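Protein modeling request. Please complete all fields; requests missing the sequence field cannot be processed.
Requester role: graduate student
Desired output: 3D structure, token encoding
Chains: 1
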Amino acid sequence: MSEIEPKKLENGENHMVEQEDSDDAEEEVVEGAGGEGSAQKKKKKKKKSKKKTKVPATQTEPPRVGLSKIFTTGVYPEGELQDYAEDNRSIARSDNTLGKPLNPGMSMIDIANLIEDGTRALVEENGFDSGIGFPTGLSINDCAAHYTPNAGDKRILQQGDILKVDIGVHVKGKICDSAFTLNFGPTYNELLEAVQAATNAGVRAAGIDARLGEIGGAIQEVMESYEVVIGTETKRVKCIRNLNGHSIHPYSIHGDKSVPIVDNGDQTKMEEGEYFAIETFGSTGRGYVIDQGECSHYAKIADAPHVPLRLVTAKSLLKTITASFGTLPFCRRYLDRLGESKYLLGLNHLVSQGIVQDYPPLVDIPGSMTAQYEHTILLRPTRKEVVSRGEDY
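Delivered output (393 residues):
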């Protein structure tokens, strides 16, 4: 989930196979009938004891098997480990597993449900212990971020669309934030390549004591070295300068540090133990986004003021938000899923009172195309871990 810079002037069933092992029968010495001190051997069949051995399940496609059923020892794979001095210039692959079943002709509602059903199954959703970290972003074309379909949205994914898929999961409040872009024709391949390469440049530049502005400069240098040929017109790829990556805090997707994607001179340093979303956006437009369109994303503000609420519906809705999401972002579809109805007036009242933050869609100029790639990193003492890096991208 992106952070926007302040304006100046973001089916398968689960199976666990159990194998049974049994002990052999044993001989047991028992007192015989021949008198005191005498004994005789008598074979007594010992009851078989059943030992249950967990055998890992296999993943389905689309994924619906919880990860604890696959990694039965409780040891999970690490992300990609990079030395701080490493200069890994490889480009991550873009054939993301979640992206394979997404095709033109699908409704945005169906795409959102497909992804989120998989997320809930994989992390074995359980209240505040594990679940979705924020609403799945499915921003299209000139919309760079913060669009997910509301109930009743009839939009269908088209062949010429560029789709950003922004996914968040959390375990005990530790959020992993990741994004990739899909296109269904070759015209904008260079745009996607530029943004993906820029994200990798940001990951390489990140590290303990790295200055945020310098990371932004490394991202900008790579991204703006690319051009896109559209018909007879050549356009330079631009960084969307008022969108940023960000640090991540427990149960809070946006921490106190922003990672720019242009060199803004920020001398703030990254520190050991911090989590960051290295998130980059490129555009064929002006490289600047504004709020536009129907809002779907919201989050309760952690340090929200205690104010008297005039609306009964707002009071009731706030209880639902606090109990179900805490400070994790949510969307209107999630309120629908909880059985809430006729809540828009109350929701808007919570926004106006500074208790809930709204995140409207972020849009560049009409006719432009935007792309997004993102990885979450952890700054370990001697190496950084790209938590969201997998075999697929």
